[in-house]
Amino acid sequence: MARIKQLERKQIVIIGDGKTESIYVESLKDVFKDKLSGYNPKPLIPKHTSVAELKKLIEANIGYDKVLCVVDMDTKLKDPKEMTQYLKLKQKYRKSKNVIFYETHPCTELWFNYHFQYTTAEFGLFEPDLKRQLDRKIPGYEKKSPFCTHQHLIKCGGKFDTAVLNGRKSIDSKKSDDRNYTYSEMVRFFEEIGVVDKLDDKK
Fold first, then answer.
1. How many Cβ atoms sit within 10 Å of the Cβ of residue 56?
2. Do 181 and 187 meet the contact criterion of CB atoms below 8 Å apart?
3. Is 191 or 49 the better-scoring residue by pLDDT?
4. What is the mean pLDDT of residues 23-38?
5. Do 45 and 19 touch, CB atoms closer than 8 A?
6. Distance CA 117, CA 163 (A)
7. In angstroms, what CA-CA distances link 128 with 8, 123, 132, 134, 155?
8. Longest dimension (CA), the chain
9. Residue 61's pLDDT is what?
10. Per-residue confidence at 7, pLDDT binned at 50, 70, 90?
11. Predicted pLDDT at 131
12. How do residues 111-133 score in pLDDT, each as one tens digit?
């Protein structure tokens, strides 16, 4: 009897700006195990949150099926030189279907906050305004496990479906309001890895 050939899983490298993103992505593997069955996500932790480090990691992993970059915009916008280099890096891979950037302003914690409520309020850096708001939902929040895991967000009353709706709303309102702050493209990241259906795919 002929053996059924198993489909190869897509090899995905996920580059975040730090431990927060790495811990969060790792926590998704068990929660969305079935939906991630066709993917093998590998989160990476950069040594530095610089564009130069991001560029180096992209180039080192360009052989993967997908290189997904989860970017905190606060670290880019606070330094004009970093922002210029980041825009050049995005432009370099603008037509690439393998290297994709997903931005959140100010940082990934806004995506966490979207599990509880929607906002377009303008925040500065993560400290202290957004952290203060997140603390009301996730007591004692810190950029470490278990606080930035999917499981802990849900345990504290957050809803993933709410985050998806709020994330999409923030992207739409960013465009319509012509603003460059308080938005998260994480929902597009989840669409790419098959956890969330793309709106265009729905009948």
1. 15
2. no
3. 191
4. 91
5. yes
6. 8
7. 45, 9, 6, 10, 23
8. 64
9. 94
10. low
11. 87
12. 999 999 999 998 866 567 888 88
Angle between helices 80-92 and 51-60 (to 10 degrees): 20
pTM of the model: 0.91
HEC secondary structure over the chain:
CCCCCCCCCEEEEEECCCHHHHHHHHHHHHHCCCCCCCEEEEEECCCCCCHHHHHHHHHHCCCCCEEEEEEECHHHHCCHHHHHHHHHHHHHCCCCCCEEEEEEECCHHHHHHCCCCCCCCCCCCHHHHHHHHHHCCCCCCCCCCCCCCHHHHHHCCCCHHHHHHHHHHHHHHHHHHCCCCCEECHHHHHHHCCCCCCHHHCC
Q: How far apart are CA 28 and CA 44, in angstroms?
A: 14
Q: Which residue has the tokens 């997140």?
A: 134
Q: How far apart are CA 67 and CA 64, in angstroms?
A: 7
- Residues 14, 45: Cα–Cα separation, whole Å: 9
Rounded to 5°, the CA angle 94-99-103 comes to: 80
Q: Which two tokens stand for residue 100?
A: 């994709």
Distances (CA, A) of 166 to 112, 132, 135: 11, 19, 19
Query: Can you say how many angstroms the Cα of residue 60 is from the centroid of all Cα atoms in its chain?
Result: 20
